[in-house]
Amino acid sequence: MARPLRIEYDGAFYHVTSRGNERKAIFRDAADRESFLATLFQVAGRFHWICHAYCLMNNHYHLVIETPDGNLSKGMRQLNGVYTQAFNRRHRRGGHLFQGRFKGILVQKESHFLEVCRYVVLNPVRAKAVDHPRLWGVEQLPGN
Predict the structure, then answer these.
(1) Which residues pair with 65 in a beta bridge?
(2) What is the pTM of this model?
């Protein structure tokens, strides 16, 4: 059975998530997180994305992305592909880093945008990794 087509159009808003293969870590340390953010910055520039919110957990990430040019799938292929190559090179490994396709949920700007942004930034609090979202950042890794 063919997978369903994604709804993509100019000016769309998405809540995007991607999880590590076998739920394994996609960020092992602060350098991995910085590498991902640098890649996201490059992809956002290339594809004219606007990133309204993000959260990098150990084994997955959340993004709230606006796509003025309706190009979510192309940009996500670049983001996950380039980051996977950098991660594999740095950690001397090969193979898939992410589990299947990314999840991209279309968000209605007027009714759900702020709620989705709130959900994304509160993810570490719901996971009981920190008591307040301001305590979660590039330098804040569980176990350190």
Answers:
(1) 14, 51
(2) 0.90
